[in-house]
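User: Before I run my own analysis I want an independent prediction to cross-check against. Here's the chain; please return only the C-alpha cells and, at the end, one sentence I can use as a sanity check.
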Amino acid sequence: MATWRDGIGGDLRHGIRIYARSPGLTALVVLTLSLGIGANAAIYSVFEAVLLRPLPYPAADRLVVLLDGRTGDRRWTSPTIPELLEVRSATRQLDRVTYFDTRDFQITGGDEPQRIVGARIETGFLPMLGVTAAVGRVFSESDGHDGSSAVVVLGHGLWRRNFGGDPGVIGRTLSIDGTTHEIIGVLPDTFAFGYLSTASIDVYVPYPSSAEYSSRSGEFANVRRVSALARLAPGARLESALAELGALARAMAIAYPAIYGGTGATADPGFSMSAEPLRESFTRNARPILLMLLAAVVVVLCIACVNAAQFLLAHAIEREPELALRSALGASRGRLVRQFVCEALLLSGVGGMLGTAQAVWLTAVLRSLMPRGTPVIGDLGLDARVLGVLSGLTLLVAVACVLVPAFRFSRPDLSRRLAARGGGASRERARHALIAVEVALSVLLLVGAGLLMRSLQELSRAQGGFSSERVTSLRLRGLRAGPALGDLYSRYLAGIGSIDGIEAAGMTSAVLPGRPNASFTIVGETTDAAALKRQQASYQIVSAGYFAALGVPLESGRLFSDDDATGRPPAAIVNREMAERFWPGGTPLGRQIRAGEGPRAATMTIVGIVGNVRPPFQTPDVPQLYVSYRQQSEPNAALIIRTAVGRSLPLAQIKQAIWSVEPRQAVFAVTTLTEQLAQATANQRAIATLLGGFATLALIMSVCGIYTVISYLVSRRIKEIAVRRAIGATSQDVLRSLAGPTVAWTLVGLTAGAAAAVGGSRVLRTAVSGLIPLEPSLMIAVPVAYLVVVTIAIAAAARGALRIEPAVALRAD
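Assistant: C-alpha cells:
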C-alpha cells in the first residue's frame, strides 16, 4: 500500500514538473476546466432543487392535481366545484379530494390599508398535506364554511411581520376585506404553500360552501375558479384513477347535456377529466428550460474536456522519447496509463476546486436570473448532494481528458514509433477531429443563443397598438360586489380625474388584452360546431377612460358612457381584427353577440370599434372584446393612469382620492407599463442571457483550443518552415500549409453544428414560448462569424513563426 501511495505521489510530482514547463497553457486549461465544472455544478444545483428534491409533504408521490379538458385537446383547465363534489362522492381510486383558490385580500390597522394574498381552503386541505398549526389550531368542519362565523389561520410570515411572532395572537381579530375574523391558528414556517401558488400566502380562510358554488344550478356553478388536489387511495395506481375519472366525466356529460353538449346515452361531447402528479404539475414549465440549460453546460464541459485532451495529447507527443524509454525499460502499459491518469487528476482536481468557488458565484447569479415562477424546493445552493455530484464530475472529467493520450501513447509498439517522432498525419487528424467536435458544439450553442436574441427582438418589435409612455398601473381589489362595485370604481375615477397632472385614467380587469379564451355567438346567425369553436376573443372589462389612457384609437362608433350601467342594455366594443374577421365587408355596429360564463353571460350590442392591441407574445392580431365595467362586476381590477408630459405620478393624491371614497381600499403593485412589458419577457431574457453566456464561453474555449493547436503545430515545424522560406516559399504559402487542415476540419465542425442546430431549434421552441422559426440568415451568420474568429486566431498563432528569420531558426537546436 505504501509503495502504491508513493508511486501515486511520484506521478503527481512528475506531472507538476511537466505542467510547469508551459505555465500559460496549463493555466488556460485549468481555467477552462474550472468554468465547465463550475457551470455544471451551478446549473445542477438548480436542477436538483426544482426537479429532484422530494416535496415536503407526506407521501407526496401520491398527491395529484385534478384537471378538466376535451378529448384530443392539450389544453387542460381546473374542474368546477360541482364536478369535484361528484368525484369525491363516487371515487374509489382517490382517498381524498379537496380544492382551494387564492386571491387578494386587504387588511387594515396600519398607516394605510395593506394588500395580502390569501387562500380559501377546505377543511381537509391542510391535513392532507400533513400540516398542523405551530400555534393554535387549523380549521375544523364547523369553522365558517357556511358563513356563520369568520375565522382565519395566519401564515408564518404575516404572523412575524404584523404580530411580532406573539403566541398570544390566538383569539385576537383581524379585519379582512372589512369583515372581522378571529385568529385561531398560525402555520409553521416549514410549510411552503408557494409550490401550489406563485404567491406567498399570508392568510387562510375557510372556503364557503354556499349553494351558489356547489349546486349545478348555482350562479357560479360552472365557473372554473379553484385548483383541485387529491391523494391516490392505498394500493391505487395513477392509471386506474385516470380510467375512473374518464368514466365519471362521461357520466356527467350524459347527466348534464346542457352544460357539456351531450345528448342521449350514447353522446360523446368530448368532455374528460384527468389527473397528473403534483410535482409534474408545478414543474411542467420549468422542466424543459432546466433540461435545456443543463444540456448547454454539459456541452461547455465537453468543450473544456476536449481542450484538456488536446493539451495532454500535445504533452504526450513531446514526451514520446521519455515514454518509449520507460516502456523499453519494462514499464507496463498500466503503469504508463496510471501516469496519464494522475496528471489528468491533477489538472481536473485544481479545476474542480476553482470550479467550486465559481459555482458559488454562479449560483448567486442564477438566483437573480431565474425565470419567474420557478418552483425551488428548499434553499438554492451547494448542498452535500451537489458537492457530491461536483466531486464525481471532477473525476469523470479527468477520465474523459486522459482517454486519447493514455491509450494512444501507452501501446506496446511505442518504442518502434520513436524514430517517427514529429511525423504522423494520424496524430494531427486526431487533434483536428477534436477541433471539429469543439466547433460543432459551439455552433449549436451559438445558434440557440442567437435564436433567443432574435425572438426577443421580434417580440419587442411586434407589440403595439398602444402607448406605454407615461402610463402606470395600480392594482385594486374592490370591497363590494355586484352593481355597487361599478359605482364605487366610478367614484374613484371621478376623484382621480380631477387631480392636476393626470391626462387620462381608466379601470380594467387586465392591463392588456390576453389570448382569445372566451367563446361568443353572433345573434341571428346559425353556425356549425366548427365555426363556433373558431369564435373566440379575449374578454376584458374596462371603462371608457381605459382606451385614452393606453392611446388606443376609436375607429368607429362610440366608447362606453355612464348610460352603459346595470339595468341598461349590455354594450360591447370590439377591435378592428374582430370586426374584419367576423363581419367582412360590413360593420358589426348594432349587431348583437352573446358572451361570458356564469353570471357574466349576456347578450350585448356592439357600439364601437377600436384599434388592435398587440401585447407581448401575440404576434398576429387577435379578436378582442371589451365590456363595460359598470355592467360586469370584477373585484380584481387595475387602475390605468397616463400622466401629463413632464409630470410624475401623483401617487399620494391618487390614494387620498380613493380613500376619500373607501378608507379600507388597498392600493398596491404600482408599476409603469414599460416595466410590466419588460417583465413580460423577463423569463425569455433570463434564458437568453444564460444560454448566451454559455455560448460565449463555448466560443472562447473552442477558439482557444484552435489557437493552442496551431501554436503547437508551429512550434513543431519551425525548422520545416525555415527551410521552405529559405527556398522561396512565401508567408501565404506557409500559412496555407499550417492552417489548411485546421480550416478544413473547422468547416466540418461548422457543417455538423449547423445541422445539429436545426434539430436543436425545434427542441428549443418547445421549451421557450414566443420563439420564432430558425431563420436562414442566422444559420449563415453564425458559421461565417465563427470562421472569421478562427481565421484571426490562426493568423495570431502563426504570426510568430513567420517573423523568425530562416537562418536563426536553422541554427537553433
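Sanity check: The CA atoms of residues 95 and 234 lie 7 Å apart.
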